[in-house]
Model the fold of this input.
Amino acid sequence: MLLKDKKVIIVGDRDGIPGPAIAACCSTAGAEVVFSSTECFV
Amino acid sequence: MYSVVKGASYFIAHAPDMVVNNGTTQTTQRKADPNAEYLTQLEKSLRSYEDCVAYLPNQVYIGNMTPEELEGYALPWYEQKALGAQRKGKYGEIMPEDEFIGMMKICDVFDLVKLEAGFSADLKEKLGQHALIDASQLEVFDKPSKEAELRKLIDKEHAEPIYYLGKMVGCIKAAHDFDESLSAHVIFENIVSKASCVLSILHLMDQTDVAKDEIAYVIECSEEACGDMNQRGGGNFAKAAAEIAGLTNATGCDVRGFCAGPTHALLQAASLVKAGLFKYVVVAAGGSTAKLGMNGKDHVKKGMPALEDCVAGFAILVGENDGISPEINTDILGRHTVGTGSSPQAVISSLTAAALEKAGLKLTDVDKYSVEMQNPDITKPAGAGNVPEANYKMIGALAAMRGEIQKAELADFVKKHGMVGWAPTQGHIPSGVPYMGFARQDILEGKISRAMFIGKGSLFLGRMTNLFDGVSFVLQQNSGKGQSEAVSEETVKKLIAQSLKDFAGHLLQE
Amino acid sequence: MKEFTEEFGAENIVIVLGAAEGEAAGLAAETVTAGDPTFAGPLAGVQLGLRVYHVCEPEIKDEVDPQVYEEQISMMEMVLDIDDIIKEMTSIREQYCKYN
Done:
């Protein structure tokens, strides 16, 4: 298992997948989200 | 009755020296390492004014080429030149940096912009030729500064130098000794924003048949903040710009919403006019110095010119229904709400399908979507992808998920309902609004009947919320009701007059 | 990111990216595994070698509740070039990742 019981750091992208959407996914796999951000290049 | 779009203008100032000295990517780099290789390379990657004018996407921005024509050119666009490129376009102009600095001086009412003597004289002559600048506005160039005075302001009093072709030609003074909100840096950003906003308004008024004194309200929707330390975002760029542009009968205010600002502002303008408060409202915004050269590191690394050298602006005139101009349909409203969430499908659905469904329309019923029209020539090499294309694919994917098109038709949907991006990466500038001029024209010519404008904003960048934001509306062919209603009002008057006559005759008979 | 690495131990950390295309994903991945290649960010010169994945890669997707993935991500699978992203990410992990 890659995510279970791991600490997850999220670098989302406004024009890809934003941070909160990734966080919602990772939480269901038993990971703890310790940091989440969303980048904006434009 | 819906309000209508009477015109749209677009302005670009070529600003390579501001890329080097004012863009945050560069100022941050200079703080970290003033001798960084990137900064040396960047200066060699700057474009000439002629190259900026001949740049295909810029010619589209000011209306000399259409988005469809641009689509015929393969990327990279920076390696090609527009044939017969012009400074002046149907919707506005591309101004050289020196003249734009002159406009900053004209827009400065607190004597904060100081310019060197030779440069001032040169500007007086150049701007004297400009059709939209009044002779009385040129008097500001008669009181130039000595170089020693400028040096003292820069070295001792925290003034921000102004450069042209790499040479110091003036400075912007701090407007207060201690107040950071009035520092020379902030004033520089704000005067650039104001000047580009003013020029956009001047072009708008030049194009439309509405007189300046008929404008009752201006809504400014950039991403800058003006105020002092006690009210840092106090405002009001709108009225400040209206003053210089000569809109004597206008008041106004600023509307903010990151890149979604212009769409929010247009909805407010449309509502104010529809509700009968004002006959004409201008929505306008100037550009940003901070974003100049934002992706410069990637461009320089790839041996490309520094393409983000444009301070941009736009202005749109919203007016009461004239029976002809395209209508802003405020009944088809897309809204990303607090509860919408941030998954891409929830976001795009709230802004498109959900709004259209309420009006009994499908995603395929909108002829063109105007999304974030960022120029892919700039964003792709920087790793941000092709932003408009990604948006169109999302709308298409949504249409496929809803069974409105087959999954295999996705590419066709993108081509048919989408456009290539052409706007400078200035945040709020590419957001929905760049297509307004063309959309108005395409609808008037009957090429399309319905366009959807979508503005999205990255609110999380302000660290007050993790939320995203967005609003959208539909611009549609005029139903002709405006005209027919005007006619019918006249008819009603005639009918009343006729019946009164009949009644009077009737009384006489009795 | 260095702080998190110190606090939780590099072996306990997974970085998950949401970049819009392969190259950007690769660049972000390189930054967290090999240090910042542009030598500008806070991680300049620090080789952390952390585990890094894009959320659309099968390694992540397979562990996520399918219904949540469907709601949050699935539409973007039609938009993003997933193959390109996987290719870039795999290459970066092979070069720099210290943990398996």
In short: Chain B has a mean pLDDT of 95. Chain B touches chain A at residues 259, 294-295, 341-344, 372, 374, 379, 382-385, 387, 390, 425, 427, 430, 458, 460-461, 466, 468 (CB under 8 Å). The two ends of chain B are 44 Å apart (CA to CA). The CA atoms of residues 267 and 330 of chain B lie 7 Å apart.
